[in-house]
């Protein structure tokens, strides 16, 4: 057995428990001063007062130098496997084109679809693995990754195989989501219903058969898939044995969050334009709000009413949404800053939103998301004395050392 001691922790801040934190629990963090953590074979065994353990008895000693330690961050929403980039859209954006204008003109997601279809599996893996390396450096130790830039059976399976390889070979813990319903592919232009039928009959069962995803997700949005199509797709996904996610109310509220609540989806994501009826449904259905403030920032959009959702008893998570179009940043620390500055959440509410709540929203709440006995030893030593500092400084990477399953990465 390998024994590791993380000593000299000035401040340890963590939510507690393996469940989604809602209402007043969202801001309930434990804070311990001057402690050390005992890790055995990558699992947290206990938290002791500083100096309690004899360092000589350990195989490895990591000195936190009196700094802040939190759980490793969990990014519950990314699209990090993609071909090419879309920097040319920046000029269009600056000239005033909206996200859906670019998509309707055959650009946007469809541009990335062309480049992803053209890329080899090896190219996609190497590019994605480099993103995961960078994310670990920012303190992210678990992330969800969606397919959705292939939009044919073969190219969606190709993306999912890339995600599966990351899961097996990379230090990051990766949770795969099938998102074949990310856009209507050019081959099905004007035939959205037929595309949904194709996904339900031919692709969802195959993804299940090959064990390549845990969740299914759909982009329920004006000019993409409507609420009826979303219902059909999510019903097929559930019957096949998947848990459900939905991109809803990002630009227009067309019934996606009401559907999410009614179907008890695990999470509804974006929520910029959510209405009271959507919030009521989500609270009722126990659906987590996956909020993406860096996307609001990049789109120049308004911000999801995260504070109101907490008041309504909806568990709130904050994710990066890293993708080549609406959020070309994988820095979850920026989303942390925006969570405070734009959502007006407290640092404690934000810490919950980037640890245990997204962990639960990707079915990993019993493994990661808090620093407690029995959980995987994923944690960040910060160049900060407290989490307020992480929320306050922006633009720098404040992660000092990142520990994954008890090892420095
Ligand atoms: O979550 N909104 C839909 N999908 C992504 C954007 C994908 C893209 O623009 O490439 C998102 O923002
Ligand atoms: Fe997304």
Structure description:
With 409 residues, the protein is of the alpha/beta class. It folds into two domains: 3-71 and 370-408, Roll (Urease, subunit C, domain 1), CATH 2.30.40.10; 74-361, Metal-dependent hydrolases (TIM Barrel, Alpha-Beta Barrel), CATH 3.20.20. 36% of the residues lie in helices and 22% in strands. The protein contains 15 helices and 16 strands. It has helices spanning 89-94, 99-104, 109-118, 121-137, 153-169, 192-209, 227-240, 256-262, 276-285, 293-299, 306-311, 332-341, 347-353, 356-361, 387-392, and strands at residues 3-14, 30-40, 43-49, 60-63, 68-71, 73-75, 140-146, 173-181, 215-220, 243-248, 267-270, 288-291, 316-318, 379-382, 399-404, 407-408. Strands 1, 2, 3, 4, 5, 14, 15 and 16 form an eight-stranded mixed β-sheet that branches. Strands 6-7-8-9-10-11-12-13 form an eight-stranded parallel β-sheet. α4 crosses α5 and α8 packs parallel to α9. N-(iminomethyl)-L-glutamic acid binds next to α3.
């Amino acid at each position: 057995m390998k024994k590791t001691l993380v000593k000299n922790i000035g401040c340890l801040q963590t939510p507690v428990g393996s469940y989604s934190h809602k209402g007043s629990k969202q801001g309930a963090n434990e804070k311990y001063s001057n402690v050390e953590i005992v890790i055995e074979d990558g699992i947290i065994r206990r938290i002791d007062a500083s100096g309690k353990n004899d360092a000589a008895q350990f195989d490895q000693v990591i000195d936190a130098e009196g700094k802040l330690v939190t759980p490793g961050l969990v990014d519950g929403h990314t699209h990090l496997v993609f071909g090419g980039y879309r920097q040319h859209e920046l000029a269009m954006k600056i000239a005033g084109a909206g996200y859906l204008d670019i998509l309707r003109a055959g650009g946007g997601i469809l541009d990335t679809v062309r480049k992803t279809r053209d890329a080899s599996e090896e190219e996609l893996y190497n590019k994605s693995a480099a993103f995961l390396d960078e994310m670990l450096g920012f303190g992210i130790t678990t992330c969800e990754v969606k397919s959705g830039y292939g939009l044919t059976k073969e190219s969606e399976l190709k993306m999912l195989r890339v995600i599966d390889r990351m899961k097996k070979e990379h230090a990051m813990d990766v949770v795969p989501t099938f998102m074949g319903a990310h856009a209507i592919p050019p081959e099905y232009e004007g035939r959205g219903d037929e595309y949904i039928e194709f996904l339900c009959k031919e692709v969802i069962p195959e993804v299940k058969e090959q064990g390549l995803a845990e969740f299914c997700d759909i982009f329920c949005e004006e000019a993409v898939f409507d609420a009826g199509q979303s219902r059909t797709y999510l019903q097929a996904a559930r019957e096949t044995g998947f848990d459900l996610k939905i991109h809803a109310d990002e630009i227009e509220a067309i019934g996606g969050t009401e559907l999410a609540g009614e179907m008890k989806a695990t999470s509804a994501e974006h929520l910029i334009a959510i209405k009271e009826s959507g919030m009521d449904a989500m609270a009722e259905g126990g659906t987590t709000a996956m909020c993406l403030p860096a996307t609001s920032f990049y789109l120049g959009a308004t911000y999801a009413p995260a504070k109101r959702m907490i008041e309504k008893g909806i568990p709130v998570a904050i994710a990066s949404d890293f993708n080549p179009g609406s959020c070309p940043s994988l820095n979850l620390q920026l989303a942390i800053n925006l969570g405070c500055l734009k959502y007006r959440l407290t640092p404690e509410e934000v810490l919950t939103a980037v640890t245990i709540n997204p962990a639960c929203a990707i079915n990993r709440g019993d493994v990661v998301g808090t620093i407690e006995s029995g959980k995987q030893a994923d944690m960040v030593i910060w160049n900060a004395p407290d989490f307020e500092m992480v929320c306050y400084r922006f633009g720098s990477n404040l992660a000092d050392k990142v520990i994954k399953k008890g090892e420095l990465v």
